[in-house]
Write a structure and sequence with these properties.
By secondary structure, the protein is of the alpha/beta class. The chain has 12 helices and 14 strands. It has 2 domains: 81 residues, no CATH class; 240 residues, no CATH class. A hairpin with a 2-residue loop joins strand 11 and strand 12.
Length: 344
């Protein structure tokens, strides 16, 4: 699970994308991975994860792979350059290794989101659960804290992490680990966004973070689809009064919610970095989740799309476009139809 720590911070720092490959002890690299590297014209790879996640044989294969120019038609005359793997003994330690790599955390001005009568607290965007009632009065140096075993809730955060250089700190869900506590102190953050409900990140974690003198905002829903919706409302919330990030969200992405891989890959797209319109990067766009390929959209995603289509979902104005992340096995045609109907 060492990929948990790489939602968007490192790609945002490097200005690059995310490619996931299957583990292979024999050194074979998935053909889709090789095709992606070729089409994107990748010349340098930054492996994330230890030798059990990305094996030395796999790295050797990649280092022997010709590098192509963007478009994948012509080679550069050199092989792909494979950098030293970024990892720690556990997923929590890998997150620290990434944080060390990127440097200073970014700032988010969301002090209005702590307002218990109308901000992210009080079940408006958040599930509450002993998070702070006030935050930094100005933009706060920010980190995400998430469970080291929960990939779904925070998988939709890649766009914010990418754009604003917000690092992830991982911890066991029952209590704040010494590793996480030390990392928050080292990073010098004064604001933490905890993502996920009390089963994902226990109240004891929040209490320990607050004990470090750090304000905590929890963003959570009743399941992964609802949490994604609450994150989208944070992203689209008005910057007036600092209750959100001001994303317009005329376009949103939808990924399947049974596994986090499609949403994880889309962090550059969510940040607006991966697509160009008239030579200009697109505006950032939130990622929403279905319940899963065999389950359906779920109550919360359906409600989110209906509200977004009507202009009362998250962000200013109505959402007019939904882009699907993943093929028909991830988001079946029937679900695409249901998405269209819900959006109106």
């Amino acid at each position: 699970m060492q990929w948990l720590s790489n939602w968007g911070t490192l790609p945002g720092e490097l200005g690059t994308g995310v490619v996931i490959t299957a583990i292979s002890t024999g050194g074979a690299v998935d053909s889709n991975t090789l095709l992606a590297l070729r089409l994107m014209g990748v010349k340098t790879i930054y492996p994330v994860g230890g030798p059990l996640a990305v094996t030395p044989q796999t790295l050797a294969t990649l280092a022997a792979t010709p590098a192509y120019n963007c478009g994948g038609v012509s080679t550069t005359g050199s092989n792909i350059s494979v950098q030293a793997p970024i990892y720690g003994q556990l997923a929590d330690d890998t997150a620290v290794a990434i944080d060390n790599y990127i440097g200073t955390p970014g700032n988010l001005a969301i002090n209005g989101a702590y307002n218990t009568t109308g901000g992210l607290d009080n079940d408006v965007y958040s599930a509450g659960a002993n998070d702070s009632t006030t935050g930094p009065t100005t933009a706060g140096k920010t980190a995400f804290v998430v469970s080291d075993t929960d990939g779904l809730d925070p998988s939709v955060l890649g766009g914010v992490s990418f754009l604003d250089h917000i690092p992830f700190v991982l911890t066991p869900n029952t209590g704040l680990s010494a590793t996480a506590s030390g990392e928050l102190t080292r990073l010098g953050v004064n604001q933490v966004i905890v993502v996920g409900g009390q089963l994902a990140v226990a109240p004891a974690v929040v209490t320990s973070i607050q004990g470090l003198g750090i304000s905590v905002l929890r963003v959570a829903g009743n399941d992964q689809t609802d949490t994604a919706y609450q994150v989208a409302k944070l992203e689209g919330g008005s910057t007036t009064g600092n209750v959100g990030l001001g994303w317009v969200d005329s376009t949103v992405y939808v990924a399947q919610g049974a596994t986090p891989y499609d949403a994880l890959d889309a962090s550059p797209l969510s940040a607006g970095w991966g697509e160009l319109t008239a030579g200009v990067f697109n505006s950032p766009a939130s990622i929403l989740l279905t319940e899963g390929p065999t389950v359906g959209l779920g109550t919360y995603l359906t409600a989110a799309l209906k509200q977004a289509g009507g202009g009362t979902g998250f962000g200013s104005g109505a959402t007019s476009t939904v882009k699907i992340l993943g093929g028909p096995s991830a988001v079946p045609p029937a679900q695409v139809t249901a998405i269209q109907q819900a959006l109106g």
